[in-house]
Specification:
Layout (H helix, E strand, L loop, with lengths): L7 H11 L9 E8 L13 H8 L3 E8 L2 H10 L6 E2 L3 H9 L34 E13 L23 E4 L2 H11 L9 H14 L3 E5 L3 H6 L5 E5 H10 L3 E4 L5 E8 L8 H11 L2 H11 L14 H4 L8 H4 L2 E2 L6 H16 L2 H45 L4
Parallel strand pairs: 1-2, 1-3, 5-6, 9-10
Antiparallel strand pairs: 4-7, 4-8, 4-9
């Protein structure tokens, strides 16, 4: 896929004209926490988003960090120890963070480019008053397969991920929400089910799949699928476009049982140190030229229609990145689950993972190592106690033999 070569000079001129005025005598660094491989960095003749932002705002620097999934991001926020000024979670996670009072209301005076956001993406169900979030991208989940090795007759359904014919060449999501969603859809359930019996049945479905799975992955999927080390993987449509650019044998389909349709949104967590500067970065990312250049690289769908003008034609007209209304109608969005359902899912997911022979062996070895350490510690403790007793006995004998003064 050809990448659009942007004129940096034109972008800088536009930014000088359109971006909010910001003046600060001190240099400020904002900590941005985003998914891996999820922002244009200047490679493949594309725009370097962070570099252009720092040119537009010379006194604001960006410290960019990445996470692999919503759950690890949530854990990082919950446990503290790190201060983030901007995070980019998915819809259901935004809903959860709002419910737990972990986000700061945005000052939209600093985000005038929010006006460019399509009405469809304003006041979403996960943030109904649109107080806490601005959409970054939207996208979908489907199945990527290597047409060189996978029979087209076997495609079309989630069941391909359970097909014994491709044992050892199938990858699966490494996070519980996406993995359970696939099992739920394959069984005909809602991907937002909280029914204990349906969660248990989904667990059994995932456990049944265990024998054909090569690995549970997140960002590792890129290398494995691009190099042909695995032939089948469920993953995000935008990332498929990146992989297909490296390996033309890779194909994609939206499963007939339905699929996850999602929005990733920009939010500011409580504990941030530079809210205004983070809001200026959000505003920058909503500039149509910047949004278009950014998404032309990461290959996700733009929540800003004006940005499509700046996409490469192959991206703007892709039926994977911008599927038809008929296909979108089969999509389902995640909602935040209750704490009880989330806990049940996480516990069941752990059971899926530890059913792996290597994991069980590692667990056994770890327990054995702990028992060995405890055993050695007890031996050492007993030995020291005996040595102490011997020293005390000798001291008492010596005291009795000493002449009275």
């Amino acid at each position: 896929m050809k990448k659009r070569l942007f004129s940096v000079l034109l972008i800088v001129v536009l930014l000088v004209q359109l971006l909010p005025v910001y003046a600060s005598a001190e240099e400020v660094t904002i900590n941005v926490y985003n998914w891996g491989q999820y922002i244009a960095d200047g490679t493949d003749d594309t725009i370097d988003v962070i570099a252009e932002f720092e040119k537009a705002y010379p006194n604001i620097k960006v410290n960019y960090m990445t996470f692999e999934d919503n759950e690890s991001m949530y854990t990082k926020l919950k446990t503290g120890g790190s201060s983030f000024d901007l995070i980019i979670p998915s819809d259901y996670m935004v809903e959860m963070l709002i419910a737990e009072d972990m986000l700061v209301p945005l000052n939209f005076d600093n985000i005038p480019n929010f006006a460019y956001v399509d009405e469809t993406f304003k006041n979403p169900s996960y943030d109904p008053e649109n107080l806490y979030s601005v959409p970054y991208t939207w996208g979908s989940v489907g199945v990527i397969y290597n047409s060189k090795y996978v029979d087209e007759a076997d495609t079309g359904s989630w069941n391909l991920l359970w097909n014994e014919k491709y044992k050892g060449n199938i990858l699966m999501f490494g996070n519980p929400r996406d993995a359970f969603a696939i099992a739920e859809l394959a069984l005909g359930y809602s991907l937002n089910t909280e029914d204990p019996d349906e969660l248990r049945a989904s667990y059994e479905k995932l456990k049944e799949q265990k024998g054909v799975v090569q690995a549970y992955v997140m960002d590792e999927v890129f290398g494995k699928m691009e190099r042909g080390e695995a032939w089948i993987a469920p993953y995000y449509a935008g990332d498929y476009m990146t992989m297909a650019d490296e390996n033309p044998d890779l194909k994609f389909y939206f499963p007939e049982e339905g699929f996850n349709l999602f929005v990733d949104a920009m939010c500011i967590p409580k504990g941030c140190e530079h809210q205004k500067e983070a809001e200026l970065f959000i505003n920058f990312l909503c500039e149509p030229e910047i949004c278009g250049g950014n998404l032309d690289y990461i290959c996700y769908s733009a929540p800003i229609s004006a940005a499509r003008e700046y996409l490469d034609e192959s991206m703007a007209e892709s039926d994977v990145v911008y599927p038809s209304d008929e296909i979108i109608a089969r999509g389902q969005s995640f909602s935040a689950l209750s704490s009880e359902a989330t806990s049940d899912m996480n516990e069941l997911w752990l059971l899926v993972k530890i059913s792996d022979k290597n994991t069980v062996l590692l667990l056994i070895l770890t327990i054995a190592a702990i028992l060995l350490v405890v055993f050695l510690w007890l031996i050492l403790k007993v030995r020291k106690k005996k040595q102490k007793a011997i020293r005390c006995k000798k001291w008492k004998q010596a005291a009795r033999m000493t002449p009275e003064q």
